Amino acid sequence: MNEIAPRPNNLDAFWMPYTANRAFKGAPRMLARAEGMSYYTNDNQEVLDGTAGLWCCNAGHGRREIVEAIQKQAAVMDFAPTFQLGHPIAFQAAAKVAEHTPAGLDRIFFTNSGSESADTALKIALAYQRARGQAQRVRLVGRERGYHGVGFGGISVGGIGPNRKQFGAQLPYVDHLPHTHLPAQNAFSRGQPEHGAHMADALENLVALHGDTIAAVIVEPLAGSTGVLVPPVGYLQRLRELCDKHGILLIFDEVITGFGRIGTFFGSERVGVTPDILTMAKGLTNAAVPMGAVAVHDKVYRQIVDDAPAGIELFHGYTYSGHPLAAAAAIAAIDLHVSEDLAGRARAMEDYFADGAHSLRDLPNVIDIRNMGLVSGIELQGRAGKPTDRAVRIFHRCFDEGLLIRTTGDIIALSPPLIIEKHHVDRIFGTLADAIRAEAA
Ligand SMILES: Cc1ncc(COP(=O)(O)O)c(C=O)c1O
Predict the structure, then answer these.
(1) Where does 31-75 show beta strands of DSSP type E?
(2) What is the pLDDT of residues 366-419, one digit of tens each?
(3) Does the structure show a pLDDT above 60 at 2?
(4) Atom of ligand 1 at shortest range from CA of 146
(5) What is the Rg, in whole angstroms, of the alpha carbon atoms belonging to the chain?
């Protein structure tokens, strides 16, 4: 057992991300240690991880294979640049990732996060259009309620109002598709909802408006951060067809759906649609070291690289692109995914998990339940005049009863590690049901 971290006595300096800092620092809840399916607090109370950290520790916590790979690499070489130099493990990690990306998407650009992956994908799409003589294609299309991280590219194509409103101007030349949430037809769907493929046709309207100026469309195959929106049957196929018809690149942001989360290695396999560019992060290293990546179709890579004048072909990169420790963690994490067939485990547990989620249907204030793979969203009726209050209180109740959940607005999102067993599923939905009942008023 690892030693428990000491409790910090000064909480002022750390400006916490996406956190109500004043509320947190008035009543801090700390995680000090993690192992397998659980976190442990400073007081050594177990907290079952219903969210794989932040949708990222898909293989469970503290995996020895990943820890040892990082330790070994740190002793061999801590860092080396990948600008005009190489180191073997970065190439090995890229080749390992490319073994699992959809056919053709075998050129891997390393980043450090999902946000950087989104911005990198957008820049590659623009560079591609320019390289093929379509420099007028400067427009990027996202989707309402989409989340693509916090860079200026990501928040511009993203479709979540609060992430944008403090920051003034965004990227120019951006438009959005409508979201696919159709509760009147699809509430309480199990798996992919039946209605909504036609929502992709809105891309025709944008093409009618903007002509041949659209470079790329970016969507999450399953939108996670907005509160779990599962793609309607046929929607992504339709989007693919329309992108092909109009010379537009299709980018899938698989930062959440990658690495087994919806029952296949990448989500694109599960939904049966191959994008031109695919972003990933989180589960790539099992979150043990920050790393993201963008898998790019060979035709896109070749268009940008092959005919470029001698010299650097793409003026983009991060000091830590392909960082040795992250590369080591990625290789070890992917090996675990393969040896333990984590995607297969997710698929095998999907029905049981869905049963647990949908068992909450008749509880007070539950207005929708959505699921796919090992993801579930439980939408609650918010308290009148107090949006988010009910969900936040349920979050605190669950934590104090030893369960970590995630909330977005009044939606509860669950995404446990893929090593979850049935008794964990029972505990998640039992604890959550009690908390929802306790906040009925
Ligand atoms: C789909 C998607 N894209 C991008 C990101 C941003 O990733 P990061 O927080 O690593 O920058 C997230 C994070 O949740 C995400 O869900």
Answers:
(1) 33-35, 38-40, 46-49
(2) 999 999 999 999 999 999 999 999 999 999 999 999 999 999 999 999 999 999
(3) no
(4) 1
(5) 22
Q: Ligand 1 centroid vs 255 CA: distance in angstroms?
A: 6
The torsion region of residue 241 among left (phi > 0), alpha (psi -120 to 50) and beta comes to alpha
User: What's residue 114's pLDDT?
Assistant: 98
Number of helical H runs and strand E runs in the chain:
15, 15
- Write out the H or E segment, with its range, that includes residue 343: helix 342-358
> Which of 160, 225, 266, 318 most suits a substitution to test ligand 1, by most atoms within 8 Å of the C-beta?
225
Give, using CA atoms, the residue closest to atom 8 of ligand 1: 114
On the 0-12 / 13-18 / 19+ scale of CB atoms within 10 A, 39 is buried
What is the structure's pLDDT at 9?
78
Question: Is residue 3 scored above 90 in pLDDT?
Answer: no
Do 193 and 230 contact (CB within 8 A), yes or no? yes
Stretch 76-90: mean pLDDT, rounded? 97
Helix intervals (H) in 107-188: 114-131, 152-157, 183-186
Q: Which atom of ligand 1 is nearest to the CA of 290?
A: 10
> Would you say 409 and 433 are in contact if contact means Cβ atoms under 8 Å apart?
no
Tell me: pLDDT of 175 over 70: yes
The CA-atom distances, in angstroms, between 113 and each of 61, 150, 322 are 19, 10, 12
Dihedral (Cα; 288, 289, 290, 294), 10-degree rounding:
-90
Q: Is 142 helix (H, G, I), strand (E, B) or coil?
A: strand
What domains are defined for the chain?
21-59+341-438 (3.90.1150.10), 65-339 (3.40.640.10)
Query: At residue 4, does pLDDT exceed 90?
Result: no
Amino acid at 239: L
pLDDT confidence of residue 8: 80
What does the chain come to in residues? 441
Smallest CA-to-CA distance from 122 within 5, 215, 196, 220 is with 215
